[in-house]
Methyltransferase (Arcobacter venerupis), 236 residues
Amino acid sequence: MSLNVKWEKEVYSQNKQVNKYPFGEFISIFFNSIKLLPQEKEKKDIKILELGCGTANNIKFMSEQGYHVYGIDGSESACKIANEFLLSQKVKATIKKSYFQDLPFENEMFDLIVDREAMCCGTFSSIKQSWNEASRVLKIGGMVISFMYTSDDRWCKKANNDTEMAVKVEKNTFTDFNVGDFKNIDIVHFTEYDELFELFDFLDIKLINKHGNNTVFTDESIDFSYDEWIIVGVKK
Ligand SMILES: C[S@@+](CC[C@H](N)C(=O)[O-])C[C@H]1O[C@@H](n2cnc3c(N)ncnc32)[C@H](O)[C@@H]1O
């Protein structure tokens, strides 16, 4: 089981990937899908959990909307940076260092679980186990918003074509990328469409959006291409 050692050692303890702002798509899908939750509850009574919250970029945004927000991350440094950031911004949220595989929360505690490219960090079977654990802490009728890289992502295609670029763990799952966006992270699985129905078999799926950001010209000094599924569903 990969418990993000590199995220701690190579990324957050080196003050890298300290994101302060949510990605644009996250804001759009949050506002578009939050209306699926029962409307009679006050925002402060709606409990949201972000899995793999990193440095609290999404947590800050959701807390500022008035929700009761929790985040977990397996990196000690990410949690420390997240707590300092929230304090400096005078935003309240609860951040705990823990792993997807064993969440420190009681059954059916949350109304919404959010995952932005964090649950993809594992083999397919470990991701499935992690979603089972996430389902445990989600209320029936509660919602999931998940972002997962697709197998059309350029780094998945490159790694499948070039065996020197990364170590292949299993189909569309790689570790030890030596270049690119996934360098210095432990492991990543790029998901195929059909796999989504296995991972999210506890959900009544409301939306699957294939979001691709495709660069059509670059001089190679910068690129900004990625391909992801955005999944919204409600627990059965
Ligand atoms: C791509 S970052 C996403 C951060 C944040 N969600 C965002 O949108 O900016 C993935 C995060 O997942 C965390 N992570 C990876 N594997 C984990 C595990 N098994 N348990 C808990 N956190 C994990 C990493 O530490 C990292 O912060």
Q: What stands out?
A: The longest helix spans residues 76-88. The chain has a mean pLDDT of 95.
